[in-house]
Design goal:
Largest sheet: 10 strands, mixed
Distance between the termini: 23 Å
Radius of gyration: 30 Å
Shape: elongated
Number of domains: 3
Strand content: 5-15%
Order of helices and strands: HHHHHHHHHHHEEEHEEEEEEHEHHHHH
Length: about 600
Amino acid sequence: MGTFAAVALGVALMTMTGLGLAASVAASDTAGLNALLGTAGGIGTFVSAFVVASTFSYAIAARRRELGLLRLAGATRGQLRRLVLAEAAAVGVAGSAAGCALGKAAAPLMARWTIAQGLAPASYAIGHQTWPLHTAFWTGLAVALTGTYAAARRAGRVGPLEALREAAVDERCMTAGRWAWGSGLAVCAAGLTGWRLGFDPGDLLKRKTYTWQPMLLISAVALLAPVLVRPLLRALAWAPARLTAYAGRLVRENASAGIRRTAAVAAPVLVMVGLTGSLLGSAATISAAKAAEARSLTASTDYVLTGDRLPDRLDVPGTTALPLAATELTVLEEGSVEVRTEAWAAYPAALAEVARLPLAAGSVADLDDGGIIVTQEWERHTLGASVPLRLADGTRRSLRIVAVMRTGTGDNAAYVTPRNAPGSAVTRIEVQAPSAAAAARLRHAAAPYDATVRTTAAWLAATHPRTNRYTRVGFLLVLGLSLLYAAISLAGTLALSTSHRSPELALLRLAGATRPQILRLLTAESLLTVTTGALLGTAVALLDLTALRCALALLGVDSPAVVPWPAMGAVTAVCAAVAVVCTAAAGAWALRGRRPEGL
């Protein structure tokens, strides 16, 4: 039942996002929604595949004695493998079909939610495309078979004497294949991160990169979980084992002995906490870095004027004003590729006095009508080199590079003089007004232009960090759907693992333990396992955010990593609540009746 629910809910998640993406592609003015649903579909598919594979693997491992009985009755290894794969195919087909029906019914609800959030036009509606249904169905079936294949091979190696074993200790959890895949994914994640830090640190700041890269590390940690979980369990249970008469030691030994069960329960928690910390933390860290850049650029500015009718110059006694006009340049790169880039038009003298550009080479004072200030991400960024480009009105020019800025978070635009920005209007004026009298004169001079005058701190608070709405709501959608699915899967895994422990619980009853004592023991073990999974997920998130912080440092941005502790704590609390409720319910069901059963 647990494996069926995992497949059905995973396929429903893929179907819902797939239908939403198909409708978005067919509609107009939904580019942001396309990216949002594409990200949601990718993460949802990863979470679904991860949870389904983990659930199937544990379900097969829990049937060791049953498979041993079949071997004792004369079944061959090939017959056991075919039996397990046939069962997985049956569950996969039924679960995928149910998931497609459930996802198709839920897709209109998601469409209405996106419209209510202002992410899609009112005409946005789920269509009758069938490719998302086919994609989700066959993906679910493929994941079920793939997740069972390794377990089926392991099942074929079960010997007849396994039926006579009474010990519930998992002696060999790490197979050669698991070592190879886990180590390979870990090396791949480390290698990609190191390559980006060495050659293109700015790539780590892109949403596509920091969205999918944590999946490699999460998968690696999950595969290596049997090795990582046991020392964590013993460290976490050290104090309870010392402070209690028997309960702490029993909880520790139960969790350590059933390492497959512990790893299967910890896996959804690892995914939930790891994704929450990595995605939300990366977005918050980049936003904080952008805000730090803006504060650095305006460090010597006292006031910022904004409005639609700002003058080209603003001469107020006692102040120094820097009018900035947004323009666009088209640069010819790699010989034939035209790249459009944003730029600011400013008077050189005011720019040198008011702004604090993050220069890596050159001087702002050298800017003139024949010069340009570029960033290190430009193809040509050598001092004195000429850059062929086209101005906003189509005029072709060749400008000399007089200064080079650090790349930063990618928001640093080029700078030219107003003569090289024909037709561009001033959109912002940064002003140095060191005295109260100068500030009063500034407000009086800005009044005829209907300009909004704010202190630099107030302007930064209103405009930075500028987290994109699609990013915020997109992560809410992605994490909300994926975490809901992972929580349900966690509940199913806990119920499955507890139900398989009836003989163990019966022995505890025969040893004199009461039902409340056993339920408390089971609950404590589940909480220990959830804590272990949360710590592994936290480690994944911290590693990802550390790499992001290193990338920012290499790009010249001094901004700390932002760890979303409240969100990660909330996810862990939800997992703990699910674990307590499901374990208590499944334990009470296993302990029903007057006499111990299951021996």
